[in-house]
Write a structure and sequence with these properties.
By secondary structure, the chain is α/β, with parallel strands linked by helices. The protein is built from twelve helices and 13 strands. It has an eight-stranded parallel sheet with strand order 5-6-7-8-9-10-11-12. The chain has a three-stranded antiparallel sheet with strand order 1-2-3. Helix 6 links the parallel strand 6 and strand 7.
């Protein structure tokens, strides 16, 4: 039976990263290891205060399951023992990894599946003065897809600055719930600037108004979409759902959400929190065939876990090696 280890970790960012919810300088993560002889399964999560999570509460939730996990609790039973969120994500991904290490087969091989292909990931630009955002966009102008963080101020000016700095890059924007109905009226201007997606413009509890918004640009649900249970109320409000493992509570529900969302007619985006390659690796399985992929967390850190994912200069990120995950 596996032995559980839980560790708190901190990863400095390469610089200050600002979104509408505040500024970050450090990514705080929780690492779960399940060891069974020579086989070690690992999973990483990011507690997010937006959902009432702290590092301490996540560690406590995982420790409460220690007895069950060390007696062999599996992924199927995990969903009934823990609710969705960061804690279950770390455990679920560690269980996937442990299954792969025990069997000697990659995680996508049971049940049989096609090996994952490299995907193009967005590179995220944090909120700053328009001039600074233009300079940042120019430094990353060769990347095929840029994601621009916004609040409710100077929206068009900031996006125009990014477009000027990176005229050939595809652009998506993320408001992190900071917009008002008035800001939504600027969608035609964003369309003129070539914006391909607007992510979570209104607060999750006030997004019913999106049903009446004309779609010059598709709108994605992030904070409004956690699991399959959310899909019915998103219909007519959103065009795309952003799947993050820290919201779904792991790879198991993320794959199920992806399939259910596609069946319901939603486009798929796969996103991440600020974390290392270990947190991105299982999300690459979900990202296969996704319309938008945003798995750039390690690129925003001062250093990554070793071994990490292979990020290419052309924006592609390759599937993980067995030494990392799966």
């Amino acid at each position: 039976m596996p032995a559980l280890a839980v560790r708190r970790e901190s990863w400095p960012l390469a610089g200050v990263f600002r979104i509408s919810h505040g500024a970050r300088r450090v990514a705080h993560t929780v690492l779960v290891e399940l060891r069974d002889g020579d086989a070690v399964g690992r999973g990483e999560c990011v507690p997010y205060s937006r959902y009432g999570e702290t590092v301490e509460s996540v560690v406590e939730s995982i420790e409460e399951l220690r007895g069950d996990l060390e007696r062999g609790l599996g992924r199927e039973a995990l969903a009934g023992a823990m609710g969705p969120g960061a804690a279950r994500n770390a455990v679920d991904c560690a269980l996937w990894d442990l299954e792969a290490k025990r069997s000697g087969r990659r995680a996508w091989a049971a049940p049989p599946g096609a090996p994952p292909e490299p995907v193009i990931t967005a590179y995220t630009l944090g909120i700053d003065e328009p001039g600074a955002m233009r300079e940042a966009a120019a430094r990353h102008a060769a990347r095929p897809l840029l994601k621009v963080k916004l609040d409710g101020e100077r929206v068009i000016e900031r996006v125009a600055a990014v477009r000027a700095g990176a005229p050939r890059a595809r652009v998506i924007v993320d408001a992190n719930e900071a917009w008002s109905a008035e800001t939504l009226r600027r969608l035609p201007e964003l369309a003129d600037l070539g914006v391909e997606l607007v992510e979570q413009p209104l607060p999750a509890g006030a997004d019913a108004a999106l049903a009446d918004v004309e779609r010059e640009v598709p709108i994605a649900a992030d904070e409004s979409c956690h699991t399959r249970a959310d899909l019915p109320r998103l219909a007519g409000r959103y065009d795309v759902v952003n799947i993050k493992l820290d919201k779904t509570g792991g790879l198991t529900e993320a794959l199920a959400l992806r399939d259910a969302a596609r069946a319901a007619g939603f486009g798929i985006m796969v996103g991440c929190m600020l974390a290392t390659s270990l947190a991105m690796a299982p999300a690459l399985l979900v990202a296969q065939g996704a319309r938008f992929v945003d798995l750039d967390g390690p690129l925003l850190l001062a250093r990554d876990r070793e071994p990490g994912l292979d990020y290419h200069s052309d924006g592609r990120v390759a599937p993980p090696s067995p030494a990392l995950w799966g």
